[in-house]
Amino acid sequence: MASTQSKSAKASATRSDGESARWIFGLLLLFAGIFLVASVVFYYFDWRGDYSALHGIGSENPNFDDSIDNPCGRLGAWTAEMLVGRSFGLFGIVVPIIVTMMGARILRRRPVLFHHSVLSSLLVLILGSLTLGVAFDDGWGMFNSGWGGACGIEMGRLLSGSIGMVGCFIVLLGGWILTGVFINRNFINTVNRAGNVLVDKSGKLVGTVAQKVPSLQSLVVSRPREEEDDEQAAPAESGVREVRPTPPPAPVAEEEPQRERAVSPAAGGAQAAVAADDEEDDPFVVHPVGVAPVSGGVQTVNDYYARNRVTDDDPFEEHTLGAEEPEGADAAPLPSRLAGEEDEFVEIDLSDGMDDTGGAVPADTPAGAEDADAEENPFLDDDEPFTVKDAGAPAAAGDAPEGVVVTVEEHHDALVDEHRITTEAYDPLKDLVNYRRPSVALLEDYLSDSEVTDEEIYENKSRIEETLKNFGIPIQRIKATTGPTVTLYEIVQAQGVKISRIQNLQNDIAQSLKALGIRIIAPIPGKGTIGIEVPNRNKQIVSMYSAVRSMKFQEAKAELPVVIGRTIQNENYVFDLAKMPHLLVAGATGQGKSVGLNAIITSLLYKKHPAQLKFVMIDPKMVEFSLYAKIERHFLAKMESEEEAIITDPRKAVYTLNSLCIEMENRLSLCKDAGARNIKEYNEKFTARRLNPLKGHRYLPYIVVVVDEFADLIMTAKEVEGPVMRLAQKARAVGIHLIIATQRPDVKVITGGIKANFPARIAFRVMQMIDSRTIIDRPGAEQLIGRGDMLFSNNGELTRIQCALVDTPEVERIVEYISKQQSYTSAYNLPDYTPDSGGGEAALGSESSAPVKYDSKFAEIARDAVSQGQISTSMIQRNYEVGFNRAGRIMMQLERAGIVGRQEGAKPRDILYHDLPSLEAKLQELGVF
Ligand SMILES: Nc1ncnc2c1ncn2[C@@H]1O[C@H](COP(=O)(O)OP(=O)(O)OP(=O)(O)O)[C@@H](O)[C@H]1O
């Protein structure tokens, strides 16, 4: 104990030395950086004076010149001159910014070099200085060199000398765009948008030029409606119109039904005709409502505009038809905004007689008859009657009405830019987007310099050799592999020696080595050699700090990665809880179970986001998990009716487990609806937005149910067995995983049914061999040395591991760190369960606890089923000469006892026991022999 303390004191001392050095260096860099930033900033303003002072210009004694203007003194001025004037010019300030950043990163334990922000700054530094060098060379004499500094100027000259100014422009533009994209990926969207706008504007420019220059009339610029919509939240229906000269008034007006535009019959005075074919062929819509016949006059663009002032901003345009315009309006000058709005016009077919000078509208033209959507299309053809297509305008032929006012209201339905419509995948982490996983610095690094000496290895090897020799077993070779707490001696025996002979000498070898915890592995799977594990004299502590930092864990791609400790080969042991898919943890009291559970929970907290994982914690001992109550709203799940998220009352544990069964059923039916085979596929579909939340689909977090002291629980509430079994059998596919811990590895607690569904089991040290058999179906756990020494059995494969130590203060720090962050408003809600709401479950519990009178052939049939690996009712009938009813009854009893699985369609039933010793234990438990 004392030696462990002194070791950990030593370890903390070494660690704190490293910490101090880090702090000192980080702070030095930080302050130096800040000082340099200040120096450069002041230098920007005082460079003339500072330069003269530094170089003794105008002074007789340059070294003692005290006329430095820079408040950071001679050192500041000199460094600033080096960075600015002599190196990078205006961008010289980036260097001290990088230094400051590096200082801060060292203090925050972040990687210093090759980090994104540092690299980005370097790119900006080089490109900035080069750009200024190319653009200004040494012009203006800034900083006594130029805007880009001496380096920038030189680099600029070199570049422009080789590729010329055009090449420089292209290289720099490309460089800045790439840098922008490197700094922030979204920048690519900005570039895209800028490109679109550029293309669009140039299109408009060509249009305007074409319209201004008559010879270019034929180059009519047309812009498709979709583009217009894309570019801005454009008016949906009324946006673009077309005015075409047409033959004299056609009496037929065609109505476009989908347009909601009310025009009073008064507008019938307009001689408008709609050429439906044109409209269909052409993406551009025709303009005004009710246009009066033009008698010999010339209507110009200016006139039209002057008489139809409609503001840009007003989405509801009001046009007055048939109302007399004030005379002055005819002669009114072209509104100043005309020039700007021309850009908006899309297709203009200009007639020869167009008068650009702005002639007045003839007096006999009914005022206002040419009302139109001025914003959209102010151009009208002047010298000809023209066809006007306007949606929905019942342009009946007839005389122009007098004094009747028609108000046309058009609603411009805003459209969203197509590119802004989100097609992103659903991000479950978005709710707590700022959530930060706990820092590894919250864990203690139990550095330990206790090593297995060569002396110790030699001694052990000699004793093993001697002992075996005494029993007449010669050996060829011994290889030692040192682990944190145990050293493995691999023995290659001489040819012809049976492995079982060495196995039988296990106790003799242990006695000879005078050490507890000898475990013989004969043969080592996959090697054919014999292994003897001998505990080290000085045992190392495997810290959770080193386990979490391990590459294996950090790079684990598992759904629920857990790093539990280190193997005998000193490798970190990482497994995926989702694949286990449930875990049984057992061991005598004080052997490291609670530490093991904390290591599992901590691993998951280090890897998962609160959106991805929830825990249900059941703790009849009341003290083990109370620490985690603080992260209720981040990581815990409970029924809404429950007050506490950590369940300590056995009855409530039964309700919660039954509630988890309901959650499991709900999830199974969601998966079925979605056509997903498991939670991973389901969540993939959901995040790809292929499942409709309105149909009840939701993102499903994993749920890890941790039950400490399962023995206590099952003793006080036998009903827990029912839901636990159901969850163990079916919940794996929908992301509900169980971890059950017990210090009483009793067949009454670890029943056959539980064992059958928990292929992954952890055994800490137990007191008797039978307990080891109960847990891992073989001896070995009774020979462990305690304090986290454990055997991990996964589907029959056994690995000895030293569990990582995570102490209570470490857990407290992690929980504190998480609890201080933004959380959900409540714990994850599990469906409410009360005995009334789910009577079936309670009934199941009581039913399973009722005494059953087993058939006299029950045990025999069970044994045969396990050894043959198959069973069916007809087989029972045939082989045991029993009738159909009796065979069916026996099968039902086997199923209820958890020896065989349920009937699923035509498939043969699963045999849930795979070896006879565990079946015997079960039969014993049932009282059948
Ligand atoms: N992995 C480990 N490394 C070093 N020491 C350990 C480790 N695990 C446990 N210990 C030591 O053993 C002590 C008991 O461990 P723990 O509380 O986990 O036992 P337990 O099996 O949960 O006991 P109980 O069932 O009574 O709660 C710890 O306080 C610690 O000192």
From TrEMBL:
Residues 263-275, 390-400 have a biased composition (Low complexity). It comes from the Bacteria. The chain crosses the membrane at residues 21-45, 88-107, 119-136, 163-183. Residues 570-773 form the FtsK domain. It is a multi-pass membrane protein. ATP binds at residues 587-594. One of its GO terms (cellular component) is plasma membrane. One of its GO terms (biological process) is chromosome segregation. Keywords: ATP-binding, Cell cycle, Cell division, Cell membrane, Chromosome partition, DNA-binding, Membrane, Nucleotide-binding, Transmembrane, Transmembrane helix. It is found in: Cell membrane. Belongs to the FtsK/SpoIIIE/SftA family. This is FtsK domain-containing protein. It comes from Alistipes communis.
